[in-house]
Amino acid sequence: MTTYSEEIKLVARPGEISFSKGLDGIIAAESTKSYVDGLGGRLVYHGHPIEELAQESSFEEVFFLLLYDRLPTAAELRRFSTQMQQEREIPDEVYALLRDHAARPGVHPMTVLRTAVSALAVYDAQAEVDTPEVHQAQAIQITSKMATIAAAIGRVRAGQPRVPPRRDLSHAANYFYMMGGRPPDEFEARLMDVLLILHADHESNASTFAALVVKSTMADMYSAVVAGLAALKGPLHGGANEQVMKMLASIGTADRVAPWLDEAMAQKKKIMGFGHRVYKTMDPRATILRGYAREVTRRAGTERWLEMAELIEKTMVGKFGQKGIWPNVDFFSGVVMASLGIDPAMFTPLFAVGRSAGWVAHAWEQRQDNRLFRPRFVYVGPESEPYVPLAERK
Ligand code: ACO
After folding, report:
1. Is 276 annotated as catalytic?
2. What is the pLDDT of residues 255-288, one digit of tens each?
3. Looking only at Cα atoms, what is the longest distance across the chain?
C-alpha cells in the first residue's frame, strides 16, 4: 500500500516535487524589487547597489524606486514626499489604542505596532477596495503612518508626551523628531535615512514572504503588512537587533567578551546578529553600519559597545567564517540605534518602519501578477488511527 508521504510524490507532476525544510533554496516568485548575492555579499534594489543608495539617496527616493521600479524625477520626488508628509497623522482612535496598551508591563512594542497597524484598516473607508489606485495610495499611507505609530509607542513606553508629526521634515528626520522630541542634526538625519534605506527591502525574507502569502489570497494591503509585522517580530528575523544589544549589555565590558563567547560556544548557543539564510559572507548592510557606528559611538560616548561588537565579530568570523557565519544587518544596527538614543525595545519597530516600503512594494507586485502561495507538506503522521469514542479514551 502507498503511504501518504509516498503518495504526495506520486500525485506531483514529474520533476516538480521538491522538499526543502524552511524552503531553503526554493524560488517561489519573480520580482523586480531587489536581489541578494549571498556569496558575493551584494544587495541591489532594482539595479542600484545598496552602497550607492546609502550614500546618495533618501528613504522617500528608495521607497519610490521600490514601488515604481525607477528613480523619480525631481518633481516626482517632491510630489511623492509631499504625499507621504500629508499621510503622517493617524486617527485619534488608533492613538488612543496604542496609548492604552504600549506601557503595559510585558507588552512588546511590536505587539502594539502590529495591533495599531491592523486598527488603521478599521478607520480606512477604502480598506476593502481592490483597485490599483487604492492599493498604491494605501502603500504610501501605511508606510507613512507606520513611523508615527512606532514613534508614539516609544513615547508612551517612556512616559513622555506625544510628539505630533511635522510636515516640513523628511520621513527619516520626522521619525527621529517624533521619537525624541527634537529634530535631528545633519549627521543624525543622514544616519536615520541610512537606517531606513538599509532596512527597506531584502528580497524574499521571512516577513516579506509572510506578507506575500497573505496578499496572494487577495486579502487587503493592511492584512499583508500585519503579516509582515508578525513575522518580523521573531528573534531569528527582525527581533535579532534587540537581542544583540541585550547580549552586549549582559557581557558588560570588552575584557569579558572572550570568556562569554567561550561559554556561549561551549553551550552551542546561537550568537544573535550572526548568520543568514542567504549571505554566506559579510552582509553589506553590516559593513555600512559598522562605518557609521564609529562616528555615532564617538559622538554618544558609547565606544565600548562598538569595541565589544568588533571583538565578538573577530572571534566569530575567525571560528565560523569558513562555515558561512558572518555578521548580518542586525549586528551593528543595535549599536548604532542605541547610540542614537533609541530604546532597544524600539529597534525592531524601526526595522519595520523601513521594511514597510518593501512589504507594500512586493504586495503590490504580487497583486499585479498573482498566484496563490500553497506549498505542500510531507505528511509523516500515522496512516490510520481508530476513532475511540470519547468516553472510552484514557
Ligand atoms: N551563531 C552560531 N551558530 C550559528 C548561527 C549563529 N548566529 N547561525 C547559524 N549557526 C549555525 C547553526 O548552529 C547550524 O550549525 P550546525 O550545522 O552545526 O547545526 C548552522 O549554522 C546552520 O544554521 P541554521 O539555523 O540551520 O541556518 P538558517 O539558514 O536556517 O538560519 C538564521 C539563518 C536564522 C538567520 C540563523 O543564522 C540565526 O539564527 N542567526 C541568529 C539570529 C539572527 O541574527 N537573525 C537575523 C537574521 S538577518 C534578518 O533577518 C534581518
Report:
1. yes
2. 999 999 999 999 999 999 999 999 999 999 999 9
3. 75
